[in-house]
Amino acid sequence: MKPSEHRPQWLWNKLLGDPVRAFGTLSLLLLISLAIAPAKDYFSQWRHYQNSYLKMIRSRGDAVTLRRHFQDGIQQIWNPELGVVDRCTTCHVGVREASLTDVGLPFRRHPLIPHNIDQFGCVMCHRGQGAATTVEEAHMSTLAWEEPMLPERYIESSCGQCHGAELTGTPQLNEGRHLMARYGCAHCHTVKLPEGGSLKAENDAPSLSHIADKTTREWMYAWLKDPQAYAVSATMPNFKLSDEEARDISAFLIANSTPVPGDTLTLPQQAASDPTAGASLYGQSFCATCHAAQNAAGNVVGGDVGPELTRIGNKAKPEWLAAWIKNPRVYDPPTEMPQYRFSDAQIAVLTGYLQAKSDSDFLANIHLDPATPEQITHGKLLLAEYGCASCHEISGIKKPENFAPELTRIGSKPTSQLIFAAGMQHTLPDYISGKLRQPRAFAARLKMPQYNFTTPQIDAITTTLLSLNERAQRLPAALTERSSPASNYQPAGKAGQLMNDLACFSCHRINRRGSDLAPDLSWEGSSVQRKWLEDFLGNPNTLRPALIRRMPKFNLTREEIATLSDYIMTVYQTPAFDRESMPNTGYPAVSVEQGRQLFYSKYACQSCHIVDAKTDKGYIGPTLTEVGSRLNAAWVYHWLKNPQALRPGTIEPNRNLTDEDARALTAFLMSQKGSRRQETTK
Amino acid sequence: MRYLRISTGFLTVGLVFSGCARTPSSNTAAKGTKSISTLVEVSGGKQTAAAGSVLPQPVIVQGNDDQGNAVPGALVSIRGPRGTTFDPPSGPTDSSGQFSTNISLGGMAGRYQLTASTRNELGKPIELKVEEIALGYEEILGRELSEKYCARCHDQESTPERLSNYDNLAVKPHPLNEGDTLNSISDGDLTAIIEHGGPALNKSPLMPPYGYTLSKAEIHALISYIRMISDPPYRAPGTFYAKQ
To answer: Could you count the other beta carbons within 10 Å of the beta carbon of residue A223?
Structure first.
């Protein structure tokens, strides 16, 4: 026998050979096992951090204060309403200490935020696992907990969980929401909002039911192949279609198109007497307020409300363009384009000018044979496959339901459910930004098209998408601040019809409907004098010297001006005061002089406003040279008392004026009647 | 995420070292050209961006020889504090002697000092410090408010859309990053000027009061922003203790 075979037997006898030995050994084992838990606790990670914190503060000047604030053991922030159980402050001991701005993590003070950490906890904003007490479990994704901490570049997404309305402090989130609305993500992806309803796109893509009236098949082919080659700022993404696909889709769309009566207009070609007439009419009509065009230096200059016009001559048929300029609502009733009251001669000049905006090389290499019935059938199939009808109205094709994956909870999608592209980091933010940057990199035949977003734009959209998560859906309504939906306000009667024709809501906001390109007109009737309003509608001029985009001249008739003025003066009045409550004229010279002193000396209003065009230079506020014949005295007085009450968000500071000062300033301003009036009325 | 960042940090350091190791070979490749004697910043310094996000413009540095001519083909690497990532972290200078890299700053608000480095023929390190600014929540709020309320007078740079009012003012406002002047004004005095206007400190009445327009928190945010972008940097007065 070898000694080793005796070994277990020997050990057994030695330890448990008789009852006394067995008792002793087992007691010892029990003692050791009982010590495991306290030992684990003693050597735990968080205790290590707390000890190094204590060591760190010892050498500081405010050691006594910091030591007094320090609490030993596991710390916890508990908020059952938000579902928060956070132990992060166990290691991040100094988050509330104002003086700890010069130390590194994990002890550094938390930067100032509008929320109290003790009410909100940490994971509300930073995500990760709040209940964990080890570094790895709290920050990273583990088997049991998939949600890692949120990278700092997307931190604003957490604000978006509760705040549906725009916040000044979250520009990235605001930008992301704006981009999602502009690029119409919600056309294909459903996003249900926690307050009910679902996310809407800013506007619908153009209808393709009558496309053959507007453009040629060759242009459509080129556009389908690469929209950005036609217009750098085009919203439509690139679907990376093959030549055959673009050929067949354009074949179907042309064959499927039905004409709209009256959407073409042939005007006698007359040689424009002045070659610059088109450009100056384009300028005078302020087309650039909404439409952009590439200038000689290659920069896209102009507004983004309407399509870019750099190569419009390659796209639009002249007879369609003329009819569109005459009355855009014939072809597209809900369009944001106003109906200018141009004469036929003006339309011809403008059409000629726009037709000349073309690139002779653009369609030079595109030669399409007449479409065969097979191609047309195939084109229809492709339309359904790419979901074109999600964005565009196409007669005979139904808008597909749930064409793309729902994004309501995309921000809390577990990484185990994601399929990553090769070589990318396996995190949700990386997945989302990768999809936005290059969707087809994930698989060859994916349908999502290629957008041309810049890195900051991708970050902004990713931020917004990360805010659409489980927590945002679950939060009690009382704790959230939802955006107020835009109203569908519609002015009544003849004036309402006129306002639709002129597309006032494309620039102005009235009663929570419309855009913020131009001033809110909800209380315009209280603000301005009728005579001025009529003059302005007849011949609009900018009120601010530093603005280049302005209200276009619509060539309204006398009756149209009267209808609009009546409506605005009657309906758009503030309930705060009566516009007749103060006289517009007849202020005593003493008050006027007192107001002048206050204006120039005490309040130094000339830093932003111009009253005397010879001496004043202020560029920021409206010019006040004729404010006495523009505004009502009661409006001026109440505006001076509290500008933000009349127009929330206006940058004119509230000066907290006394009634006396406000009255004197009103008297001075109302005495500024200007000179234009006499000239126009003479 | 933190560990990933640390590992990328190590990666950067690793690349710096490997870059050092490779420098002689890259120099032999660039034989015939003069040796680098200085690194100069072409563009991209003193940018601001939200903490953790990518700087709007890449940082471009140029290697020059002692005659001031650009040196192409020299290996330049760049490193920074924890959390900063570079794309790419190192590379050769191009035909015009420039090296360009996109930078995303770390998650902590503050000033980030980045170091671009290369070696000359003798293996002597040549370094260039570039400073960037990461904005936290408060500073971003301050930046937005400053864009809305302050920039039109305090920023001389005019944009085509919004002409600067700076030139129209009889008493010129201080640009908000003018550290030489603003650093010597205490937080309390700055608050007083913003709240009550210039006359509060015997300054120009052209500066109106914003105390009834902006909240306390907003004014605080504005000051945080002004302090953050200040050039030269603002150093907060420390707390003084009798014991020391």
So the answer is: 20
